[in-house]
Each structure stands twice: as structure tokens, then as C-alpha cells.
Specification:
The chain is an alpha/beta fold. The chain folds into two domains: 211 residues, Rossmann fold (3-Layer(aba) Sandwich), CATH 3.40.50.300; 77 residues, no CATH class. The protein contains ten helices and 13 strands. The strands form three sheets. A six-stranded mixed sheet has the order 5-6-7-3-8-9, with helices on both faces. α5 packs parallel to α6. The longest helix has 18 residues. The radius of gyration is 21 Å and the shape is elongated. The two termini are 15 Å apart.
Length: 297
């Protein structure tokens, strides 16, 4: 499977603060990738390294087989929408489209004008007068109309209300369905990612904790509820990620290649939000270990 982003031992330091540590990651092409993690985990740093806005302190990163921002041709293949969905308040919607056409050699004017029309936006209206959701849609239009092979979105819906978030994500998925673009979408809203993403990467404490296709991850993580017992008494092949106990009952979050069978307990599938929260808790509770994508090889 072709990787669209490859990082090996990637690190970024700001003075004494380590923003990203020993990040080794392979993102397959043709996926909608959800990048999750708590605030300060290194998500924006990783995405800005992928765009070429930052340079690594250590390690290497390749995007589309090249160093990020290695030249105009490489830049033309990557679209980026930052967290504040930057636009120019004094310029009209039409001005933004004209600017996009001048700056991007692969600009698709038909796509850009069609999106603005479908969104019901007045091309002559200044962007500063638009709502937050509308500005985000303009920013997305600029990013997708350059027809990138990789679209990177750094929490573009964080400040939007639920309806605007849904409309933004719906527009994104319509574009992906039609053009097959690989997307990396950073968000702390797991419910949004659950609707659109088929690959997951979790960063915690500046390290990759888990990475893989969502179906594979959900198919190998379970909640086991039993009468109180020690983790060492669980069936072979169950790796315990988290354990809680009451006087009579034990609940384990486990990883296993197959569901297995425990006659003394109830084994249930784990939802995406619980999966993400489990790895966040594990990552902040102690030293980071190898990410799941490596441990299962």
C-alpha cells in the first residue's frame, strides 16, 4: 500500500519544549485520516511539518515521496486549512477565487465557482461579513480547488456550531467521494471523526500512541467485564490497556487479535471514543510505548 506521508524519528523542539518526539508514522493514500489527541499533544506541529511551514529538529518526513515544500510542484499537490480558517476580511468571495487562480497552477475554476454557488454565497460579499461557518467553507473551497493529492485540515471546525460543523464535513465528504483525495483531519471532536474517518492516528504527550484503519482498531479492542480478578488471570492473547475494579467486579479494556472467549466474563466491542480516551489516558499516565501499528507487525 502506497504511503502518502512517511515520518521516521520525527521531532520538533521549541527551545526547551519538545513539541513532537520520535514520531514514526506511515499514512496510507486514499484514506480520510483522523488525527486526535489532547491540546498540546503535537497535532498542529505534525501537520505544519507536513506542509513545510516548519522544519524538523530531528528525524525525517516525506509527503508524496518528497520533502515538504521542496518546490512549487510539491506545494501544488498539498492543500492546507489552518485552525483559524484564514481568509482576508476586506476581500470579497470572488476576490479570493481570483487570488487562488493566480497562485495555483492546477486551479479548478469550475470546481471553485460551483462550490460557492452550491453554498449559496454571494461572490461579491466581503468575507469579513460572513459567518464563521461560511468563512470556513471559503477556506475549504480555496484548498480543494487547487486539486491537491493530500488535503490537510487542522481543526477547521473547532470554533463552529454543530450545524456549521455538519455542513462543513458534509461538503468535505462530497468532495472526497468525487475526487478520492487523501485527507488528514485534526480534531478533538471524536464524534465528528467517527462520521467521516476510516483511519486513525492518536498523538499523546507528543508521541504517536496508536495508528491504523478504524475497522481494524475497533475489531481488536474490547471491554471485558468479569467478577473481580487479576489481569494475569485473563485468557492468553489479551493485552490489558486499562483496568478498573470494584469490590465484586473488574472491567478491563483489552487489545486482542481475535475476540477470544472468556466463560467467566462478558466481552463487548469498544467504541471509537472509548478507544481514543483509553489511549489518551495510557499516554498521559506513564512513558509512551510503541504505537499499535508497530506492535502488531
Amino acid at each position: 500500500m502506497t504511503a502518502i506521508l512517511e515520518a521516521r524519528g520525527l521531532g520538533k523542539r521549541y527551545g526547551r519544549r519538545q513539541a513532537l518526539t520520535d514520531c514514526t508514522l506511515s499514512v496510507p493514500s486514499g484514506r480520510v485520516v483522523g488525527l486526535v489527541g489532547p491540546n498540546g499533544a503535537g497535532k498542529s506541529t505534525l501537520l505544519q511539518l507536513a506542509c513545510g511551514l516548519l522544519t524538523p529538529t530531528s528525524g525525517t518526513i516525506e509527503v508524496l515521496g518528497e520533502r515538504p515544500a521542496s518546490g512549487p510542484a510539491q506545494l501544488a499537490r498539498v492543500g492546507f486549512v489552518a485552525q483559524d480558517t484564514p481568509t482576508y476580511a476586506a476581500l470579497s468571495v470572488a476576490d479570493h477565487l481570483r487570488l487562488g487562480a493566480r497562485l495555483n497552477p492546477t486551479w479548478d475554476a469550475h470546481l471553485a465557482e460551483g462550490r460557492i454557488r452550491d453554498l449559496g454565497l454571494d461572490p461579491g460579499l466581503r468575507v469579513g461579513r460572513l459567518s464563521g461557518g461560511q468563512r470556513a467553507q471559503v477556506a475549504l473551497t480555496l484548498a480543494v480547488s487547487k486539486r491537491p493529492d493530500l488535503l490537510i485540515l487542522d481543526e477547521p471546525v473547532a470554533a463552529l456550531d454543530p450545524l456549521a460543523r455538519r455542513e462543513f464535513l458534509q461538503g468535505l465528504m462530497e468532495y472526497v467521494a468525487e475526487h478520492g483525495t487523501t485527507v488528514i483531519l485534526s480534531s478533538h471532536l471524536v464524534s465528528d471523526l467517527e462520521r467521516v474517518c476510516d483511519h486513525l492516528v492518536s498523538l499523546v504527550a507528543s508521541r504517536v500512541q496508536i495508528a491504523g484503519d478504524v475497522d481494524d482498531l475497533l475489531g481488536s479492542h474490547f471491554r471485558l467485564t468479569t467478577a473481580r480478578r487479576d489481569a494475569g488471570d485473563l485468557p492468553e492473547g489479551m493485552h490489558v490497556l486499562q483496568a478498573t475494579h470494584t469490590e465484586r467486579q473488574s472491567t478491563f479494556i483489552v487489545r486482542a487479535d481475535t475476540p477470544g472467549h472468556d466463560p467467566d466474563g462478558v466481552l463487548e466491542p469498544l467504541g471509537l471514543e472509548d478507544l481514543v480516551l483509553t489511549y489518551m489516558a495510557e499516554g498521559t499516565a506513564g512513558p509512551a510505548r510503541r504505537p499499535v501499528q508497530e506492535a502488531q507487525r
